[in-house]
Amino acid sequence: MKVAATLKVNGISYPVEIESHLSLLRAVREHVGLTGAKEGCDDSECGACMMLLDGQPVNSCSYLALQAEGREITTVEGLAPPGQLSALQEAFLKHGGVQCGFCTPGMLMSATALLRRSPTPSETEIRTALAGNLCRCTGYEGIVKAVMSAADGNAGQAEAASSAV
Amino acid sequence: MTGSLVVAGNLEEAVQQLAGGARAVAGGTDLVVGARQGKAPLPESLVAIHRLEELRALAEDGDGLRMGALVSHAAIAADPVVRSRYTALADASAIVGSHATRAFGTIGGNLMNASPAMETGGPLLCFGSTVTLRSATGSRGVSLDELFAGPGRTIADAGELLEEVRVPAPAEGTGSAYVRLEYRRQMEIAVVGATAVLRVEDGQVAEARVAITALAPTIRRVPEAEAALVGSDAGGSAVEAAAHAAAAASEPISDVRGSAAYRNAMAEVIGRRAIKAAAARARGEDVPVPATQSYMEV
Predict the structure, then answer these.
(1) For residues B97 and B186, is the Cβ–Cβ distance under 8 A?
(2) B103 touches chain A (CB under 8 A)
(3) Residue A66 CB neighbour total at 10 angstroms
(4) How far is B272 from chain A (nearest CA, A)?
(5) How far apart (Å, rounded) are the C-alpha atoms in residues B151 and B219?
(6) Starting at the edge strand that comes first in sequence, how are the strands of the sheet with A2-9 ordered?
(7) Where is A108: in which H helix or E strand?
(8) How far is the first Cα of chain A from the last one, in angstroms, to the nearest whole number?
(9) What is the ipTM of this complex?
(10) CA distances from A1 to A57, A133, B4 (A)
């Protein structure tokens, strides 16, 4: 039996008609039409499906779409306005944090959540925050460097802001 | 897939749904993930309880700590009161799964899933916690001693929802720690785990609680280990005797994560670490949370 629901993704409300047990990942990919989040393992091991739900990282493959109704869903498409990249995305390009790209949307979402709750994390904090995201290409070095570089950018901004005061 | 999901707007509606045969889902990190892994299909009829804000409270009052069923591992691990006074619980919640698991996984779900390898059960058992089980016809208190019935099973009826966990305040001079054997630092569950809660008075152990995790069909206390510690100075020989008792009380299974023989051998090592870390904290020494990663001394 299908149920009518509204999913708010990246600030836009999408009316959908979905099965009650459908995952958030499938709802967003197949009903909303945003395919940035990927299906890897489909059981919460790999993190390719990572989205933010009210700002918290969620394995969307294993979360029921109807439980996300009335909440803010953020996917990789929502990290920057169309045609632009966030500072973190720029850092991934600069530091070689992307090879095949399949894990990248999930990595970006976990790292975004980290940098929001802890703008200048240590390398250990970064590796811990990304532990639920698997990458088969990079060996993680470029990814960790990218997040550290984005964190350095945050630290620089904080310094500039405090010296401006 | 067919099925139904009702998003409960209040506790009464949730327990009415359970009475009608629905299963509860909060963060989905056990129920939905288990279905994805093929352990058991998702129940046809679900009641989502994530909107019940009244189950999200985490606070200490005169009697101790009170946690609603929906309190997340992230909230527990970050709470300054839990970290300072109920430290073993912070040790446990801090190492559950990944950031995503800790953001959405709840204490109520963790307990009711009743895995013998789950992290928070040992600390809550040793602190003498009780849970409130609520159904459409009433509610009852159950101590953690009685809650677990076997691997993946509790004594709760299908119509009962875990509403709240109460943890009595530890007495002055208490130190506690939960330590697990892990192959990786995140996305892990205990291969072997141990909890120790020690109250030290004038350099002597006045009270001791020790529990083993992933070493028996349910998480359980080890009275022989506790007896070995009480009256001692928590020094070498008492710790050895207690760790040995923890291993002797183990009856582990062999599975993909470890053989029974390996788990038995590691029970002593992990038991020793948990006891030493708890004793160090009882003496006022700084052992950072999570003890699993800050206390590698054998």
Answers:
(1) yes
(2) yes
(3) 23
(4) 26
(5) 9
(6) A12-19, A2-9, A72-74, A50-53, A56-59
(7) helix A104-117
(8) 59
(9) 0.92
(10) 29, 33, 8
Residue B160 — left, alpha, or beta (φ > 0 → left; ψ -120 to 50 → alpha)? beta
Q: Does A68 touch chain B (CB under 8 A)?
A: no
Q: Does A161 touch chain B (CB under 8 A)?
A: no
Task: Give the list of residues 6+ apart from residue B136 with CB closer than 8 angstroms, or none.
Answer: B12, B15, B16, B18, B19, B159
Q: Which CATH architecture has domain A1-78?
A: Roll (3.10)
Question: Looking at domain A80-159, which CATH architecture does it have?
Answer: Orthogonal Bundle (1.10)
- Assess contact for B126 and B210: CB atoms under 8 A: yes
- Residue whose structure tokens are 């909890």: B195
- Helical H runs in B20-152? 31-37, 73-78, 80-85, 87-93, 99-104, 107-113, 121-126, 144-147
> Over its length of 298 residues, how does chain B's per-residue pLDDT go in tens digits?
578 999 999 999 999 999 999 999 999 998 998 888 888 899 999 999 999 999 999 999 999 999 999 999 999 999 999 999 999 999 999 999 999 999 999 999 999 999 999 999 999 999 999 999 999 999 999 999 999 999 999 999 999 999 999 999 999 999 999 999 999 888 899 999 999 999 999 999 999 999 999 999 999 999 999 999 999 999 999 999 999 999 999 999 999 999 999 999 999 999 999 999 999 999 999 999 999 998 876 5
Listed by start position, the domains of chain A span 1-78, 80-159
Q: 217-236 in B: which are within 8 Å (CB) of A?
A: none
Contact (Cβ atoms closer than 8 angstroms) between residue A40 and residue A134:
yes
Rounded to whole angstroms, how far apart are CA atoms A18 and A4? 7
Q: Distance of CA A152 to CAs A123, B133, B139, Å?
A: 11, 48, 52
